[in-house]
C-alpha cells in the first residue's frame, strides 16, 4: 500500500486555535490497513509522528519536523444488541458531534450530554471527553488501535484505558504510541436523563419530562451561548482542568476565600472552578500579543488574531503563576502541547 506523502503541509485548518504552523510531511490515514502500513513505510522511518484528529485539543507551539498523520477513518454501525444495550462502533475519523446526532436519530440515546464537543471519535478516549454531567468513559466499551512503531493491532477495554478526569492511558504511558482506529460504545436501553447540571436544567425548565433530544438541544443551546465559536475566535475549549483538592485543603482555602466556586466529589475531594480562580486573578479579557483570556469565559484562552502557540503558552504560564501565588493551587493544562 502506498500512501500519498504530502510535504511542507500547512496545519492552519487542522487546529482550532488557528495557528499557522507547518508539518514537514503529512499523510491522510483513511483505513486500518493504511495505519498498519505506516510502521514499514521507508519514507517516514525514524521520523517523529503526530496523530491528528480535528486539532481541537492541541497547542501547536512550533512547526512540526515530522509527519502529521490525519485520521480520516469513517463508518458507524450497530455491531451488537441485547436486552440491555446497543453496542455501536464508529471509525476514529468520524466527527464526534455528527456521531452523537446519528445515535439519537437512530433511537439510541445516551451521549446527548456530550453534544457539540468539537473533534473526532478517535480522540474522545484520549482525554475521556466530558461535559454537562457525563464522561465518555461511562458509555465506552472498547477501542481498536494500531501501535505506530510496530504496526501491530491492539484492543483496549475500559480498564486498559485507565480513564480519569480528562485523562487516560493515552495521555500517560501510551502517549504518542498508538493510533486509535475505532471506538465501540455501549448505550444502555434503560435510559435515564442527566439533567442536573444547572445551565442545562435551566434550559429544560419548560419541558415537563425531557427526552434525550431535549437534552441534546439544551446542551447545544447552552454551549452556543457560553463558548466562543472557534471558527470565529480560535480556541481549544477549556484550557485548564478544574483542580481537585482534598477536603482539608478546601476548608483552609474557603476560610480565606469564602466565594470560591467548587463542586463536591463522590470521593470526598473537592473540584475547584478553574475559571473562577483565573477570574479572581484579574485575567479575564487580558492577554499577551494576540493570545488572550476570553472576556466572558476565563477558562478559555483565545487567538484574537495572529497569536502563536508560544504566546498562548506564555500566557498560560503567567496565569498559572498568579493562581499558584494567590490560591496555592497548581493549574494543569488540558490540551496537548506540541
Ligand atoms: C470550543 C471547544 C469546546 C470544547 N469542549 C470540550 C468539552 O466540553 N469537553 C471536553 O472534554 N473537551 C472539549 N474540547 C476539547 C476537544 O474538543 C476534545 O478533546 C476532542 O476530543 C479533541 O478531538 P480532536 O479530534 O480535535 O483531537 P486533536 O486535537 O486532533 O488531538 C488531541 C490529542 O489526541 C491525539 N489523537 C487524536 N486523534 C487520535 C487518534 N485517532 N489516535 C490516537 N491519538 C489521537 C492527538 O495526537 C493529540 O494528542 C473542546 C474544544 C473546543 C475547541
Provide the structure class.
alpha+beta
Spatial order of strands in the largest sheet: 6-7-12-10-11
Radius of gyration: 20 Å
User: What share of residues is helical?
Assistant: 10-25%
How many domains, in number, for the residues? 3
- The CATH class of the largest domain is identified as Alpha Beta
Helical stretch count? Answer: 8
| β-strand number | 20
Largest sheet report = 5 strands, antiparallel
Low-confidence stretches: none
Q: Tell me, what's the shape?
A: globular
Q: Looking at CATH, which topology of the largest domain would you report?
A: Uridine Diphospho-n-acetylenolpyruvylglucosamine Reductase, domain 3
> What string gives the helices and strands in order?
EEHEEEEEHEEEEHEHHEEHEEHEEEHE
Going by CATH, the architecture of the largest domain would be 2-Layer Sandwich
Distance between the termini: 29 Å
- What do the pLDDT scores average to? 96
Bound molecule kinds, no repeats: flavin-adenine dinucleotide
Strand fraction equals 25-35%
Walk me through this protein's architecture.
The protein is α+β, with helices and mostly antiparallel strands. It folds into 3 domains: 6-71, Uridine Diphospho-n-acetylenolpyruvylglucosamine Reductase, domain 2 (2-Layer Sandwich), CATH 3.30.43; 76-202, Uridine Diphospho-n-acetylenolpyruvylglucosamine Reductase, domain 3; 234-337, Uridine Diphospho-n-acetylenolpyruvylglucosamine Reductase, domain 1. Helices cover 23% and strands 27% of the residues. The protein binds flavin-adenine dinucleotide.
